[in-house]
Design goal:
The chain is of the alpha/beta class. Helix content is about 20%, strand content about 20%. It contains seven helices and 20 strands. A nine-stranded mixed β-sheet has the order 2-4-7-9-11-13-15-17-20, with no helix packed on it. Strands 5-8-10-12-14-16-18-19 form an eight-stranded mixed β-sheet, with no helix packed on it. Strands 1-3-6 form a three-stranded parallel β-sheet, with no helix packed on it. Helix 5 packs across helix 6.
């Protein structure tokens, strides 16, 4: 259990100026206005990692971060390249410096507009920042809000703010408030990203990253590496193959990019989250739980795969292959699911939609089991067993989970 403390801004940011794992800070980024205070280490690492570039020799650390600037930084952090159609938005044009980055951010699903506007030049608020990072890093839900001004957090942002706090990335001010409607400076955002990401491994094997790591370029050698937090396989990987067989990930594996992923065979990975829309993801090795969180994902269990539970939370998922998938849990809104793996127990909650197999289907509220050929077995007196199911979270029948050793990282007030 992470120990959470609410600290004042200066204390929180001072204590969180830790290392960036395999990514090192530049000694002198060369900006004439680089501050010499708590914000300098995170700003230097952001510059070193290509997230901040500044303008006219100035980093503008105290400037208010705009929605366009935030989108650009997130796009760089994840190496995103896919472009969305933004013709429906009327407040930007192709000549704007941020036009391409906003197209990428929309394609990533991390930013959206309202009433035909993206408001690119508007200062972004703290709760908006939390919402963007919650979507980008696919953070786990965090429960209740631990802040004195929790009632001021907008309903649409509550889950995101709670997740940021629960992960240890976000702390309150000296009064225990999160100040959700206030704007955020470029320095504060750099520090928040520094709390979230401790390494961007690219080409060097081995080493320990004391927190979350983002891999955004193909060919990274992760052999012998220990990642103390989550591993994010980012958008920049595209359809590249990723070998994690020699890598230890103590948190979750978040798949936003990559196609064929080789997991360790000796000990099961804790959890993998599949979030590549319309993607085909092939897995080998062991994993306790796979969550499908993007629409139209095809999960192929290769012959050497051993998957405990697949939890389907999005539309159009297809679970197939010759590997072992012990169970599939189809949750609310996950319509159009297909399961053709052999000897798999399938559970459809009451609002989970229809699940197809090779020879039939299951409706909401039903359970069934496939045979070795991926066909649904018939229960005696015939037909799939119908029962009411109230699932909170599916339990993996085997492959016991390892404890989460992520350390608390307090962050922006």
């Amino acid at each position: 259990m992470l120990k959470k403390r609410v600290l004042s801004l200066i204390l929180a940011l001072t204590m969180l100026s830790g290392t960036f794992g395999t990514a090192s800070a530049a000694a002198s980024p060369g900006f004439t206005d680089m501050p010499d205070d708590w914000s300098r280490p995170a700003l230097e690492r952001a510059v070193s990692n290509g997230l901040l570039s500044g303008s006219n020799g100035r980093i503008n650390a105290a400037g208010m971060l705009t929605r366009a600037e935030m989108a650009s930084i997130v796009v760089r952090a994840f190496g995103a390249e896919a472009l969305a159609d933004v013709s429906a938005y009327t407040d930007m044009s192709s000549g704007d410096w941020f036009y391409t980055d906003l197209r990428k951010a929309v394609a990533m699903g991390v930013i959206s507009g309202s009433n035909g506007k993206l408001n690119p030049n508007a200062p972004i608020t703290r709760e908006e920042v939390c919402a963007v990072l919650y979507r980008a890093f696919l953070l786990q839900d965090g429960g209740s809000l631990p802040f004195g001004d929790a009632s001021d957090v907008s309903d649409w942002a509550k889950q995101a703010v709670a997740a940021m706090a629960a992960g240890g990335y976000l702390a309150g001010d000296a009064n225990g408030n999160v100040n959700p409607g206030r704007t955020i400076t470029r320095a504060e955002f750099a520090q928040l990203l520094d709390n979230l990401v401790k390494g961007y491994p690219s080409g060097t094997a081995g080493g320990v990253i004391e927190g979350n790591a983002v891999v955004k370029t193909a060919g990274a050698d992760l052999s012998g590496m220990v990642i103390k937090g989550d591993l994010i396989l980012a958008d920049g990987l595209g359809m590249a193959d990723v070998d994690l067989s020699g890598c230890t990930v103590e948190g979750h594996i978040i798949v936003r990019g990559g196609s064929k992923i080789r997991l360790p065979a000796a000990s099961a990975a804790r959890q993998l989250v599949a979030a590549v829309p319309n993607g085909v993801l092939s897995l080998s090795g062991k994993v306790n739980t796979v969550e499908i969180k993007a629409d139209n994902v095809t999960l192929n269990a290769e012959s050497s795969a051993e998957i405990g539970t697949v939890e389907v939370l999005a539309k159009g998922a297809s679970i197939r292959g010759t590997g072992t998938v012990l169970s599939v849990a189809v949750r609310a809104g996950a319509s159009g699911t297909e399961v053709t793996t052999g000897n798999t127990k399938i559970t459809v909650i009451e609002t989970g939609g229809t699940v197809r197999s090779n020879n039939g289907s299951l409706s909401a509220g039903q359970t069934g089991v496939t045979d070795g050929s991926g066909n649904l077995k018939s229960d005696p007196p015939g037909g799939a067993l119908t029962m009411k199911v109230h699932l909170r979270r599916a339990r993996t029948p085997v492959l016991p989970a390892r404890p989460d050793h992520r350390k608390a990282q307090n962050g922006m007030p």
